Amino acid sequence: MARVVVGLSGGVDSSVAAYLLKEAGNEVIGLFMRNWTDESPTLEAECPWIEDSNDALLVADKLGIPFQVLDLSADYKTRIVDYMFAEYQAGRTPNPDVLCNRDIKFDLFLKAALSLGADFVATGHYAQKTTSEDGIHHLMAGADGNKDQSYFLCQLNQDQLEKALFPIGHLPKPEVRRIASEAGLATAEKKDSQGLCFIGKVRLPDFLQQQLQVKKGQIIEIEAGNEVFETPVCGQAWKLEPRMGQPVGEHLGAHFFTVGQRKGLLVGGKALPLFVLATDVHTNIVYTGQGADHPGLYRPCVCIRANEVLWINPSQALKPGESRMVSARIRYRQALVPCELRCDSEGLQLIPKEAWKAVAAGQFAAWYHENELLGSGIINA
């Protein structure tokens, strides 16, 4: 029997994870992470922490397991929220959910669990873990392809995986809800949370304006068919200049926009909707193009600096001059794309069979072999 601390979030997935572990004979402790308490930027009080905490307590009472609330809000602000603001200020697009798993759930939360004598920590992620005879821990995709959340765990290292359990990773979502219902868990019919990790659904510009200043600038439209970009060298930024297009409107700050964004531009009178092709926070210009298939939305590769590469499976790491075929994605729920992964002294390049669309610096690229997530890194260009 193992002592397992479960991150009870107040949702159905972590509730069933705790239930399955208890049914298997483990000593289970429920721990709710209080990471965010400011409800001012949330929409319709989505995912308020008090309601979630109460739901987690109801589940713990039903299962007859100890329950505690762990206040990590100060660290969450420093490690996640402040980092988000800094990245947007720099014109990059961070992924707080990936960072939350790496720096909060499987770092601070894990340390707290170990201080309680835990052998493992468990979450309600739709992902799986195996361990080979050589002692390497392998992060596998969840069995439910529609719910696979391995991408959100793409920055976990071997030490973190060693202590991690994903009790529902082998189950489809409908089965998880069925188990919760039959077990009489209060969260059985609760809607899945959406939005930023532990914050909920927000109007991102409103959230960012808590710290980032409004700064009016031009929206420039680039016509399809023009020579929009110089041919890039991997690792260098694409070059755009105002003379390549025409002003079509104003915005409140280039740092409030990301590549591929459609909403929030507020420019009408176009045959097709405008999409953000690029932003320049130094000149405070947002570059746009008409239509979801504008050629300026596509890139032939993504590049990752050597010091921002993480190999979850270190036995598969490439050395400079080596390459291999993998499947990869550059955002959650994106279909895996066949790619060539190349390594040089500067880092890695992911070159897809078909060009990447809406690549945003600051996001994470993750690459797989079959169902195993081998590694990940922060997109530089």
Explain this structure to me?
The protein folds into 3 domains: 3-196, Rossmann fold, CATH 3.40.50; 213-297, SH3 type barrels; 300-378, Translation factors (Elongation Factor Tu (Ef-tu), domain 3). It contains 7 helices and 20 strands. The longest helix has 20 residues, at 96-115. The strands form 4 sheets. Strands 5, 6, 13, 14, 15, 16, 17, 19 and 20 form a 9-stranded antiparallel beta sheet that branches. Strands 3-2-1-4-7 form a 5-stranded parallel beta sheet, with helices on both faces. A 4-stranded mixed beta sheet has the order 9-8-11-10, with no helix packed on it. With 381 residues, the chain is α+β, with helices and mostly antiparallel strands.
Quickly describe the structure.
With 381 residues, this protein is an alpha+beta fold. Helix content is 22%, strand content 27%. The N and C termini lie far apart (48 Å).
Features:
381 residues, alpha+beta, Rossmann fold, SH3 type barrels, Elongation Factor Tu (Ef-tu), domain 3, 3 domains, nine-stranded antiparallel beta sheet, five-stranded parallel beta sheet, 7 helices, 27% strand, globular
Give the SSE layout.
Layout: E1 3-7, H1 12-23, E2 27-34, H2 49-63, E3 67-71, H3 73-89, H4 96-115, E4 120-122, E5 127-131, E6 137-141, H5 158-162, E7 164-165, H6 173-182, H7 204-208, E8 217-221, E9 246-251, E10 274-280, E11 285-290, E12 298-299, E13 302-305, E14 309-311, E15 323-329, E16 337-344, E17 347-352, E18 356-357, E19 364-369, E20 372-378
Parallel strand pairs: 1-2, 1-4, 2-3, 4-7, 8-11
Antiparallel strand pairs: 5-6, 6-20, 8-9, 10-11, 12-18, 13-17, 14-20, 15-16, 15-19, 16-17, 19-20
Helix pairs in contact: 1-2, 1-6, 3-4
